[in-house]
Amino acid sequence: MKTICVFNQKGGVGKTTTNINLSAYLALEGYKVLVIDIDPQGNTTSGLGLDKKKLKKSIYDVLASDASIKDVIIKSEIIDNFYIIPSTISLAGAEVELINIEKRELILKNKLQEVKDDFDFVFIDCPPSLGYLTINALSCANSVLIPIQCEFYALEGVSQLVNTIQLVKKSLNKNLEVEGVVLCMYDSRANLSNEVVNEVKKYFNEKVYNTTIPRNIRLAESPSFGLPIMLYDDKCKGAEAYQKLSKEFLGRIKNK
Ligand code: ATP
Ligand code: MG
Q: What phi and psi, each to the nearest 5 degrees, are found at residue 52?
């Protein structure tokens, strides 16, 4: 089982979109995939068609009570091999509630042990912040997948991001590595996008995937229908890009 944390503390860069669509393409390839939504916004949860108001249990119960992880896993009704641990807004209180709990950084890591033989990949969608939720995700992950938006401020905050990964590596998870960097919302007509790509490549070198994700309206529409892109419009540019990314992602893992 490989656990990948999709993280960038900057908001709105494409974390959730990448998390949903990359993981869905891997499930389509036949891998058994679990997606954990650890963001109180719950965008992965609703983007995959789950109604947050109707959920009885969520990742909150895993973190804040003695609930087993198996109790909160939901099998997707729309994609085979695909499982979800949803988030609800109650998770917003968890940051504060966890303050007095011993080893609070490692709750998720310990609970994930229960399913360590059940999945090929676990993807965790992080909130755009550096609190205990994110630290829990980084502590249990084998690697971090970093989406970066192709915009003027793209690299702002990246040194902080890399610092955070180093800190977690030193204190909580010595094997944590950067899986790769995905450039999102790329606009081939804009010089700026190309400049950003070059800057990011200078910083992260070969960690940057060759596949870039274009700005594509279909990608922005599909979550409101609760569908990953291949079930919404499998011919659009965004679908092509995420499918290509899934192949590049797998190719790299196999070549290691
Ligand atoms: P947050 O930090 O709030 O969790 P995020 O990093 O998860 O945000 P997303 O939710 O994936 O970012 O994307 C932000 C917004 O941009 C969303 O409305 C999403 O639908 C849209 N979006 C993401 N990627 C693309 C794309 N390639 N083309 C067009 N729209 C996109
Ligand atoms: Mg998100």
A: -60, -30
Q: Which residues contact 212 (CB under 8 A, 6 or more apart)?
A: 150, 182, 183, 184, 186, 197, 241
| pLDDT tens-place string over residues 142-185 | 999 999 998 888 888 888 899 999 999 999 999 999 999 999 99
Question: Residue 217: nearest ligand to its CA?
Answer: 1
pTM: 0.97
Q: How far is the CA of 231 from the centre of ligand 2 (A)?
A: 20
Q: What DSSP element (H or E) covers 122?
A: strand 121-125
Q: b or e along 166-179 (b: 16 or more beta carbons within 10 Å of the residue's beta carbon)?
A: eebeeebbeebeeb
pLDDT in tens, 233-247: 999 999 999 999 999
Q: Which CATH number fits domain 2-255: 3.90.1150.10, 3.40.50.300, 3.30.300.130, 3.40.50.720?
A: 3.40.50.300
Helix (H) or strand (E) holding 2: strand 2-6
Q: Ligand 1 atom closest to Cα of 126?
A: 4
8 CA from centroid of ligand 2 (Å) = 9
Give the pocket of ligand 1 (CB within 6 Å): 11-17, 39, 41, 43, 128, 184-185, 213, 215-216, 219-220, 223, 238
- Centre of ligand 2 from the C-alpha of residue 173, in Å: 23
Separation of CA 6 and ligand 1 centre (Å): 13
